[in-house]
């Protein structure tokens, strides 16, 4: 970058103080309540480092950060990717702006960040990691993640620099844990694992006879002569097997932290974890809990930020006349990115929620007009007239042109700001929203009168009309359509959106609000791989099928659900994991690699029960000729790693029957394929 270019970009960065202040004021006026945000100006390399570090300036030493940095840098160099910002979940939040971005981009980032900070501060899933919940005895504050991660970084770096600890062993240990970083109980708040005697049983008490004999360090000759296999089996039969945990444990990292050991290659057996190993495992587990809400709310959070960014930049003209085209182009690129785009899907769903809630409010009012029922609704309502009645008053749309007409006693008008604006102390041309209250802004931006949503009310189905009518308990009636529309609550859509923002994650959001109307409007469909033709085909446009496919990608971060079933499997101190089968089989090769990692944290053989699908070649050939899909046979399998090799064996169906989901199937293939 040339000196002149650097000076020009730095000048833009220096001029961001006003946009930062006004974006925060506008966000608050629109009903948002974000964490305070600290903005930092960084250069291109610093931005790439922050993205690699997950939005923080200090992380523990590990090769993964360098890999992410290199990928981010090459993406910008060769694929045209551009980093606009990164913001972290902290109180106060920290947002980093790249100095080389244009002013229009910086403003867009600032409005986007304010919405993210609001989501961080109010979503209950993020609240699981904070002390802000008064009902949990918290002090109302959000996380102090920057300090936490810095402490973690320093602790791990001290272990790496300890002359008594091999640095490579620390790095390998981190690799083992990171392979399992998503195997936590994401629906529970983080609680540090307490190891010493909290369940009244020590690992020694849970060890089987074979392990105790190993601790005696007897010679092989003595062991074979005195304690042969037959004798060991008899001891196991006589003992009552100790099975734990009592219920399947979802937090695999916590279980390994509490009961795991390390495998000592020289001794050829499991030994206690070193203090540094347990501490690093707990550090990485805690970080997994911190980052879990971000993974659980990607669509919800990014859609929320994109919605309010568009509202502030486009509809409230936060982007100046000379900036709007550049902003629109960049937002179109973000929303038009290929693949499953969380920004696009999230923004569209939030807009659909807003429109649906507002439509219901209007319909409920109209159904209470004398002579109007759900049966004749479509025939007797003049929807163009309703549209005219819903239009906001001109004085709310064009504030500068009607400044003298605004009534300070109107609840939609901020009387104090109106007075200063009339004195010329407020730039109403640039910031007309300052003169309006929340009530004024919800009417000014009412979704059903926007050009792209005209006709949304008239498209309501008869089934929806009947359902709304059935659950209407207010029997008050209106004499006319005009009276009914005059009573419409313009804030209902935004109020409901904030309620949803507080309690939902991606899975619940998609499950509740993705409807057939939404799928049809936005042209969503499913596709499947067919063995018959060895290709992918579009399979369904049904909302239920689209929803199943989306939920598959977001449930448990899109990864298999693995739980701890038994820490004393077959009374041999072996670990038994179970895969909660949902119709999608495991990648066996990845499962094998993962078992090897788990072995390093358990120190003893590790087992995994799962369900697999097997296809008969003859059935596949017959199905191909008939343009159908072959029917697979579901079989139970157990993978076992003993420290040397992974074995896979078929087990009786009764051993895995409880793992099969009885009401979830992600297969959307039709019975017969179209030729």
Summarize it.
The chain is an alpha+beta fold and 675 residues long. The strands form four sheets. Strands 8-9-10-11-12 form a five-stranded mixed beta sheet, with helices on one face.
Characterise this structure.
This protein is of the alpha+beta class and 675 residues long. Helix content is 48%, strand content 11%. It is built from 30 helices and 12 strands. The strands form 4 sheets. A 5-stranded mixed β-sheet has the order 8-9-10-11-12, covered by helices on one side. The model is unreliable at 133-137 and 197-208 (pLDDT under 50).
Q: Which structural class do you get from the secondary structure elements?
A: alpha+beta
Strand fraction equals 5-15%
**Mean pLDDT reading:** 88
Work out the helix count. 30
Low-confidence stretches: 133-137, 197-208
The biggest sheet, with number of strands, parallel, antiparallel or mixed sense and barrel status, is: 5 strands, mixed
What spatial order of strands do you see in the largest sheet? 8-9-10-11-12
Number of strands: 12
Report how far apart the termini are.
Answer: 57 Å
Return Rg in Å: 30 Å
């Amino acid at each position: 970058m040339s000196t002149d270019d650097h000076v020009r970009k730095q000048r833009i960065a220096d001029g961001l103080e006003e946009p930062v202040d006004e974006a925060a004021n506008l966000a608050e006026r629109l009903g948002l309540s974000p964490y305070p945000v600290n903005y930092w100006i960084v250069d291109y390399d610093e931005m790439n480092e922050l993205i690699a570090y997950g939005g923080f300036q200090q992380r523990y030493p590990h090769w993964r950060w360098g890999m992410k940095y290199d990928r981010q840098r090459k993406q910008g160099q060769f694929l045209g990717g551009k980093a606009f910002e990164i913001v972290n979940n902290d109180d106060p939040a920290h947002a980093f702006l790249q100095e080389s971005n244009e002013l229009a981009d910086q403003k867009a980032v600032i409005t986007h960040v304010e919405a993210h900070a609001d989501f961080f501060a109010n979503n209950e899933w993020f609240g699981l990691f904070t002390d802000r919940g008064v009902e949990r005895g918290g002090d109302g504050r959000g996380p102090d993640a920057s300090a936490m991660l810095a402490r973690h970084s320093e602790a791990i770096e001290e272990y790496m620099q300890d002359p008594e600890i091999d640095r490579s062993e620390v790095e390998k240990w981190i690799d083992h844990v990171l392979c399992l970083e998503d195997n936590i109980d994401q629906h529970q708040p983080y609680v540090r694992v307490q190891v010493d005697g909290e369940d009244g049983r020590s690992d020694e008490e849970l060890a089987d006879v074979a392990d105790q004999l190993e601790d005696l360090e007897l010679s092989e000759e003595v062991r074979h002569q005195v304690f042969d296999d037959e004798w060991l089996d008899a001891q196991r039969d006589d003992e009552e097997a100790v099975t734990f945990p009592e219920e399947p444990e979802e937090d695999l990292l916590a279980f390994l932290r509490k009961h795991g050991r390390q495998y000592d290659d020289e001794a050829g057996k499991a030994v206690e974890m070193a203090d540094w190993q347990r501490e690093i495992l707990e550090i990485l587990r805690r970080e997994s809990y911190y980052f879990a809400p971000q993974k659980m709310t990607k669509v919800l959070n990014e859609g929320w930020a994109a919605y309010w960014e568009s509202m502030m930049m486009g509809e409230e003209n936060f982007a100046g006349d000379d900036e709007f085209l550049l902003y629109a182009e960049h937002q179109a690129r973000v929303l038009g990115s290929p693949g499953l785009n969380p920004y696009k899907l999230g923004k569209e769903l939030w807009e659909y929620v807003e429109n649906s809630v507002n439509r219901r409010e209007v319909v409920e009012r109209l159904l209470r007009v004398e002579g109007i029922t759900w049966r004749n609704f479509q025939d007797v309502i003049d929807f163009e007239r309703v549209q005219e009645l819903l239009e906001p008053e001109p004085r709310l749309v064009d504030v500068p042109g009607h400044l003298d007409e605004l009534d300070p006693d109107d609840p939609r008008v901020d009387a104090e700001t109106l007075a200063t604006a009339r004195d010329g102390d407020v730039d109403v041309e640039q910031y007309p929203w300052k003169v309006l209250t929340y009530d004024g802004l919800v009417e000014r931006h009412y979704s059903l009168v926007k050009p792209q949503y005209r006709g949304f009310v008239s498209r309501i189905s008869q089934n929806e009309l009947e359902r709304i009518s059935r659950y209407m308990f207010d029997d008050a009636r209106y004499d006319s359509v005009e009276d009914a529309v005059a009573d419409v609550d313009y804030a209902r859509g935004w109020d409901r959106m904030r309620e949803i923002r507080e309690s939902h994650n991606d899975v619940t959001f998609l499950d509740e609000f993705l409807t057939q109307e939404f799928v049809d409007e936005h042209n969503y469909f499913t596709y499947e791989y067919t063995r018959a033709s060895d290709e992918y085909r579009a399979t369904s446009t049904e909302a239920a099928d689209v929803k199943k496919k989306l939920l598959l990608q977001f449930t448990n971060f899109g990864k298999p659900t693995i739980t701890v079933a038994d820490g004393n499997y077959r009374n041999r101190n072996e670990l038994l994991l179970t895969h909660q089968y949902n119709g999608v089989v495991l990648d066996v090769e990845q499962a094998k690699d993962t078992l090897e990692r788990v072995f390093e944290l358990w120190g003893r053989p590790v087992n995994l029960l799962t369900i697999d699908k097997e296809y008969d070649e003859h059935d596949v050939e017959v199905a191909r000729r008939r343009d159908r899909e072959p029917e697979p046979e579901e079989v139970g399998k157990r993978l076992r790693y003993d420290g040397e090799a992974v074995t896979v064996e078929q087990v009786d169906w009764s051993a895995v029957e409880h793992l099969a989901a009885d009401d979830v199937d992600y297969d959307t293939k039709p019975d017969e394929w179209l030729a």
